[in-house]
Amino acid sequence: MEKVVFFKKLLAELELEESEIDESSPLHITSLQTLTLMSFLDEHFGIRVKVKDLIGIESVRKLMELIGKDKID
Predict the structure, then answer these.
(1) Quick one: how far is CA 44 from the chain centroid?
(2) What are phi and psi of 35, to 5 degrees?
(3) Distances in Å between the alpha carbon of 47 and those of 17, 24, 39, 72?
(4) Distance, CA of 25 to CA of 28 (rounded, Å)
(5) Domain count along the chain
(6) Angle between the 3-14 and 60-67 helix axes, to the nearest 10 degrees?
(7) CA-based, 20 to 30 A from 20: which of 4, 11, 46, 60?
């Protein structure tokens, strides 16, 4: 998935208030957004994660590392 598309989908899925995000953007998500993010990762990347896997994810860059840089170009 292209980075630009990833950023737009992430904003839409998590209903974030920011108009734009990039790799260096902080990622502060609620428990409901965590569940949404788990579904998003499974649907778009085939990655199944648990809540504990997302606890240390505090930036978009960390999320991209979890997904794998080879899946986002």
Answers:
(1) 10
(2) -65, -40
(3) 25, 22, 9, 13
(4) 10
(5) 1
(6) 110
(7) 46
